[in-house]
Amino acid sequence: MTRFGYTLMTEQTGPKQLVRDAQHAEQVGFDFEVMSDHYFPWLAAQGHAPYAWSVLGAIAHVTERVELMTYVTCPTMRYHPAIVAQKAATVQLLADGRFTLGLGSGENLNEHVVGAGWPTVQARQEMLAEAVEIIRKLHDGGLVDHRGEYFDVASARIWDLPEDGVPLALAISGPSSIEQLAPVADHLIAVEPNGDAISTWNATDGATKIGSGARAIGQIPICWDPDESVAVERAHEQFRWFAGGWAVNADLPTTAGFAGATQFVRPEDVAENIPCGPDLDKIVDSVKAFWEAGFTDVALVQVGGDTQDRFLDEAAGPLLEKLRSAAP
Fold it and tell me: Which residues, including other chains, have CB under 8 Å from residue 245's CB and lie 6 or more apart?
């Protein structure tokens, strides 16, 4: 059965509101909640970027049922993988086993702040694979020494570990990343409903098959509002960066860069790619591309930090009913 999640988007909402939204979304009936881990918003109009891990700790205490997940953390530059291993273990204990560590190769927007430069795609994926190796070793509970191509770890140990560990979901971007990452992941993350990615993952030696132990977790932005024109305007103001695609979005370093790169994106262009307005059936039609591609989980992003309460109060419940009725 397809599971539906709610996105706690740190780029558009402050920390206290994120905690309230997480509790509200659980009450409405979402199956899981994912949280972005950013140092910068994509566009200045979004206006926020709190520290995701502090917020996750608070959310773990105010929720009881929903699964929690980073979507995604980069464990290679802004954070050393040994530190990510410790943070993830702590959140898993606070969440009583409801946490999945979502990892990816990162975006320049967030990772440039430590002044370490920006590696090539191939190097970033190699770094991610080595980081996963370190995190797995530390979550096994022993004393870890590691000297690798990208990272060193000296006599490290995680002292507070959950009994059942922390599942790892890895973000993929194409066949080469799937080949490298699928064998070391528990679950797949992707933001495009690409059925070929699912097939390639399932055909990769050593990968846990999607639907037979592994989940494929997608994400889609929506902009619900009773007034369609208001929704389109808001989506254009805050989410036009989405039109760039992963190859562009991963490399731009600043909000000014995203503003410049998207200056010619029109409101109608955004509306063609993001369902806007009050029509819940239109949203369902957009989301179904994910389950038709073989995804097991889909997280919704409601665009607009100040619209979350109204969306959750008025639209989320009926929308979840429609999604669950339509999904296999």
Answer: none
Pick the CATH number of 3-326 from 3.20.20.30, 2.40.50.100, 3.90.1720.10, 1.25.60.10: 3.20.20.30
Q: Of these residues, 11, 24, 26, 38, which one is catalytic?
A: 38
26, 107, 126, 130: the active-site residue: 107
Amino acid at 164: D
Query: Among candidates 134, 49, 144, 30, which has minimal Cα distance to 88?
Result: 134
Cα separation, 76 vs 58, whole angstroms: 25
133 a catalytic residue: no
107 Cβ contact list (under 8 Å, min separation 6): 74, 249, 250, 251, 252
Report the distance separating Cα 13 and Cα 20, nearest Å: 11
Question: Could you tell me the pTM of the whole model?
Answer: 0.97
d(Cα 235, Cα 41) in Å, to the nearest integer? Answer: 15
Is 38 one of the annotated active-site residues of the chain?
yes
Relative to beta strand 152-156, strand 32-35 is: unpaired
pLDDT in tens, 11-40: 999 999 999 999 999 999 999 999 999 999
